[in-house]
Amino acid sequence: MLGRSGALEVRLAAGAREVRRAQRTRYKVFFEEMDALPSPLARLSRRDSDLFDEVCDHLLVFDHDVVAKPFRKPKPRVVGTYRLLRRDVAEVGPGFYSAGEFDLGPLLAARPDARILELGRSCVLKPYRSRQTLALLWQGIWAYVRHHGCDVMVGCASLPGTDPQALALPLSYLHHFAAAPPEWRVAPHRALHQPMDLLPREAIDPKAAFKRLPPLLKGYLRLGASIGSGAVIDRAFGTTDVFVVTPIGEIGSRYLDHFSPAANRVAA
Asked: Which alpha helices (DSSP H) does 29-111 contain, by range?
């Protein structure tokens, strides 16, 4: 266990059966609630899965406050999940998931010894989208980061919709006010690149633009994350994706103090 708050618990998946439960939770969020288009296999299995699931660690939030079915023990419900992929695992396996959209080559070459952790496939069931659940997920991530000595967290973050013009305000805000420094900047593959500087800096109200961001992106930016130089349209998931990089050293002390109890337990 990496953290507990009331009836909610966060920990890593213990075996393939719990990974499948995470995949079913992802299916409910991505395909039943949002605009993602399931493959025939996903529609049949009611699970969101890919080859990366086999090599990643899966962080799960369980709700233990469930009603038992007749003649069965109550089974905690998987209500949130994050997928975690370390560089040492990616490099002997399928690589990073985000490399399908973004050119990670220059970053990896420039920092051959950096212990990179890719975060992905984040989702929480709608009734559980609260600070309590998100805080537990981040406690689990921070415990994992401490345990493995990670230097930087990276990954794709999504804005809903596939029309960049409709997303001009949040994309332009990210470009002008949250751009990664040159040494961390990652761009999409050339054929996928969508410009983000759709509005001039002086035309943007930063507070209003920040409010337009999805909660996950707001959370990353509050932690100290910055954004790569270009977006990618993911039509299968109905989103526009940006690359997020969060050096561990850039995370503010306020957040470290908040997450540290779980991290100290697992690191010990």
From this structure: 40-45, 87-90, 105-110
Tell me the pairing of strands 102-103 and 116-124.
Answer: unpaired
**3-state per-residue secondary structure call for 125-149:** CHHHCCHHHHHHHHHHHHHHHHHHC
- Number of Cβ within 10 Å of residue 238's Cβ equals 16
Mean pLDDT of each 10-residue bin along the chain, 268 residues long = 93 97 97 92 96 97 87 87 98 96 97 97 95 93 96 97 96 98 96 98 96 92 95 96 95 65 45
Query: What is this structure's pTM?
Result: 0.92
Contact 218, 210 (CB under 8 A): yes
Residue 177's contacts (CB-CB under 8 Å, 6 or more residues apart) are 201, 204, 206, 209
First to last CA, the chain: 13
Q: Which H or E run contains 21? A: helix 16-27
Is residue 197 within 8 A of residue 235, CB to CB? The reply is no
- Counting Cα atoms < 13 Å in the Cβ hemisphere of 242 gives 33
CA dist., res. 227 & res. 184, Å (int): 9
Q: What gap in Å lies between CA 9 and CA 7, rounded to an integer?
A: 7
Nearest to 222 by CA among 245, 265, 251: 251
Asked if 96 contacts 57 with a C-beta cutoff of 8 angstroms, the reply is no
